[in-house]
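Before the break, one more example. Copy the sequence into your notebook; we will annotate it together after we see the structure.
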Amino acid sequence: MKLKLLAGVALMAMISHAGAAERLVVKMKEAGNAPVVSSAKNIQHLFGQYYVVQTNDVAVTRAQLEASSEVLRVDINAKAGKRKLPQASQTEMLPKVFGKSVTGFNDPGLSRLWGFNSAERGGMAVNDAYETLGANKGEKVIVAVVDTGVDYNHEDLKDVMWTNEGEIAGNGIDDDNNGYIDDVHGINTLVRDANGVATGDPMDKHSHGTHVSGSIGAKQNNGIGVAGVASNVAIMAIRTVPNNGDETDVDVAESFLYAAKHGAKIINCSFGKSNNEGGDLVKDTINHIGAEYGVLVIAAAGNSSQDIDRRLTYPASFDSETLMVVAATTSSGGMASYSNYGLVGVDLAAPGSSIYSTTPGNRYGNMSGTSMASPNSVGVAAEVLSRHPELSPIQLKQVLMDNVTKVSRYETRMVTGGRINLLQTLQGL
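Here is what the structure looks like once it is written out:
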C-alpha cells in the first residue's frame, strides 16, 4: 500500500510539473525553420510551419517569438470555457442472447437502435443495406475517436479496438519509437509527462467517448449488447476532450496527427466550441492529414439551436474539403430542436436523439446530441470505405452527400437537405 501511495504521489508531482508550463502555437513563415527562443522549456514540431512552444513565462516567450522576423503568428493555447457534455440516462447491463433475429443481427439491444431503420422510418437504412447487399468482405477501416477516451475493456468494444502492434503493453518503453510510451490503443493528451509528452492510456473518464464508439462499431452479431453501424472497423481511442468539454487546439491537432500517422482514415469529432483561439492550426491540420494521409474528419454541428453560418462554431465552421459536418435528427424524422444548422456550414443530417449505445463498465444507455449524429455518420462512412477502399476522403464525402435521403424540412438547413443513407450510398457506387 505504501509503495502504491508513493507511486501515486510521484505521478501527481510529474503531472503537476508538466502542467506548470503553458503552450504557445507558433506558425513560422517557412516550413523547416524551427523557432529559436531562449525562454522556451520545450519545442515540438507538429507539421509544416507549425510548432508548439512550452514555456513557464508566456509573456516573455511570446514577446521573443513575435520579435522574430521568421515568425508569422503566435497564439496562446487557451481554454475556451467549460460546458456540459451529453451523459447517458438509465445505464444498464444487457443480458446475452444468441440466435439470429429477424433483422439478421443477434445483438439483444438492436431493437432500440432506431437509426438502423429504413429511410421511410427516419433511419439510415442500415438494416436494409445488410439485408440487401449481404455481409461486408472488404478491408478493415481504422476510425479514430477523439473524445473523452474509450472504455477499451467494454464487452462490446474490446474486440474492435485498434491495437498498436509495435507497442508492448505496460513495459514503460516506447517500443516503436513513435514518441509515445505504451500507446497500445491510442494516446491521452490530457495527461502529459514532465516533458509535455502525451501519455498512452486513453481510458474513458466520462462516458461520452465510449458511447460514440459503440455507435460507430460495437461488435456486430456477438450476442451481446448493441451493434455498431460499421461491421469492419478498428476503433483508435484518443482522450483529448476533458470531462468538462474544454479541449484545446494543440491537443486536437496532436490527436489528429497521431491518428493519421497510425493509419486512421476517418476521425470522429463529437466536440466543438464557439471561439477559435488557435488561428488556423486545427483547420490546417485537417487539410494536412486529408492531403497527406487520406483522412476524412467528420464533426458534430453543435447543440446550440443556431445557424453556424452566422455564429461560427469550431471545428465545424472550418472550410475544408476533407471535413464533413453533421446535424441531428429525431426518430420522427424531424430536425432535433437543439441541433445547429447552416445552409453552407452543415453538410447533412443523421440520427442524434435518444441514441442507445455502449457506456463504461459493460453498460448501455441513451444520449442525445449532434455528438451522437456524428458517429452514426462515421459508421456509415466506415462501412462504405471498407467496401470501397479506393475512395479518397473527398470522394467518400461526396458520395455520402450525393446519396442522402432528401427531406423537405431540411432544405434550408444544410447543404444536401437530407439524412445519411447507407443502402442508397452503397447502391450509388
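The radius of gyration is 21 Å. The longest helix spans residues 2-19. Try to locate both features in your own notes.
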